Amino acid sequence: RRNSPLLLCQFFYLKSQKNIKEFLFFLKKRRSEIRNCRIRDRERERERERERKREREREKRGMEGANNVKIVALLIICLSVGALLVKAEDPYLFFEWNVTYGTIAPLGVPQQGILINGQLPGPRINCTSNNNIVVNVYNKLDEPLLLTWNGIQQRKNSWQDGTPGTMCPIMPGTNFTYHFQVKDQIGSFFYFPTTSLHRASGGFGALDVHSRNLIPIPFDKPADEYNVFLGDWYNKGHKALKKMLDGGRTIGRPDGIHINGKSNKLGDKAEPLFSMEAGKTYRYRICNVGMRTSVNIGIQGHAMKLVEMEGSHTVQNMYDSLDIHVGQCLSVLVTADQEPKDYYMVVSSRFLKQAISSVGILRYANGKGVGSASSDHLPTPPPNNTQGIAWSMNQFRSFRWNLTASAARPNPQGSYHYGQINITRTIKIVNSRSQVNGKLRFALNGISHMDSDTPLKLVEYFGVAEKTFKYDVMGDEPPTPSSNNNKVVTIAPNVKNATFRNFVEIIFENEEKTIQTYHLDGYSFFAVGIEPGKWNPEKRKNYNLVDAVSRHSIQVYPNSWAAIMTTLDNAGIWNLRSDMWERNYLGQQLYFSVLSPSRSLRDEYNLPDNHPLCGIVKSMPMPPPYK
């Protein structure tokens, strides 16, 4: 039909020519062509339909593919988040310690000491900022034991602080696993036992916290690091010293000074404590772990560059010698730039009527060796009289915060402007020495602390604090002078309420003739001022409100005052104590109760499952957990 006009023309042409056979043949041929065309048309239509079907299937598969891509993408995201969460869980370091008695002789006199894994000093914890530290402590002594981690802030976690006010002790023959994080901290710290007078018999060791790799330190990496533990020492063991204090007497003057549990005199052919290679620089992390005596340290022929103090990078001044008070730590860099031979490290007492000292040997590798140390040109000790106090005060004022260096976080230390924060509370604390019922006691504002049978933290957590202690028996000001010269002392648990996140000023005033040292758990503070005389509000104009070092301990010189500032942003119960352990044991300490109003896990962790219970809370039902 489509070709009918053409066929008609052809028909009339052929008819005119009278060739009918040819026309019929032609017509048959055209019919065949038309049939083939129709077949091809139908085939093309079927092909187009198949193509449309394939297109619909492709679209369907595309949608399914898109959905699969979404699912895969979501899976990848979930896996990535999971990986990030795994990565966010900071590394764990595990330790297992056996605390035992053992024979030691720091001053050459054999006596019973406290060892950790058979060592004095104990094992070093060498970690990095934000690491999780897990220490399983087996108490193999014959008396209860606690270890504290001096200077570690235990963010939200006073459960692990290791003081009698926060934890039940580890009983003989049992173990306890400490688990804490060195959150946002760097620096040189140490651990030691807080129970009884165990500190007098050892049990101390290093806790060094390094910066993360992504945060630069403000000095070149040293060739090596050494831990140096200094302190006074008594030849009587801790049990004999405790008996003296319990009987109302003082433990008296120490018998000597040790360096890493050893003591030597000039001329002794002793083994070297430390080794250095010529031309290299070394970091010495130095801590005073003694009982009551400030010390001075110097290294023969070598200057010391101060770089860190109790978790803060300092302005890098050079010193021939440094005063280090009880409980304090610092880091210095020493370059081996002298003739290769032996040199003396000299440690001497401060502010004692009769000085005591000890030496250790620093040996150059490939140097002259044994006997090459000379007593010539030893470090000149600072004076020990009133001039010595002024000398030490001036040295304290030379310690400055390095404002441009980063510590545990990337931002510079100086980005925290503590001097611009309004003070919300001032607490003035005066220490005193008294007799109560014929026995020696030490007090703060007339309150001599006494540990309770149940730790303060536990009775507060279980809601039964009123059965154990009263808050704020000590005022924010010392009692007014009375006819007995302000010597009336009350023996009781000393717990002060404090407001969470308040910025407080604490003034220590020392009216005695002996130097004091204080330590605050749970926080670092700015040591803004030390001066002779009595404190009054006018003294604030002399504060260092720009670059005071952020630290955890402060010394208070005789007849002088010291001022610190801190933000109470760490919920828990925290010990403010004399670091002179005789005074601490006889009451010169207190606890701050810093509760979060929200009682939230955001601010404080719950009681750990493995935390031992004792005293009145042992059989009580558990309180509702924080959420």
From TrEMBL:
Tell me the InterPro entries matching this sequence: Cu-oxidase-like_N, Cu-oxidase_2nd, Cu-oxidase_C, Cu-oxidase_fam, Cupredoxin, CuRO_1_AAO-like, CuRO_2_AO-like
List residues of the Plastocyanin-like domain.
98-213, 225-366, 467-597
Q: Which Gene3D superfamilies match?
A: Cupredoxins - blue copper proteins
Q: Which keywords does this Swiss-Prot/TrEMBL entry list?
A: Glycoprotein
Region Disordered: start-end pairs: 42-61
Glycoprotein recorded as keyword: yes
Please state which protein family the record places this protein in. Answer: Belongs to the multicopper oxidase family.
Protein name listed in UniProt:
L-ascorbate oxidase
Q: Which organism is it from?
A: Solanum stoloniferum
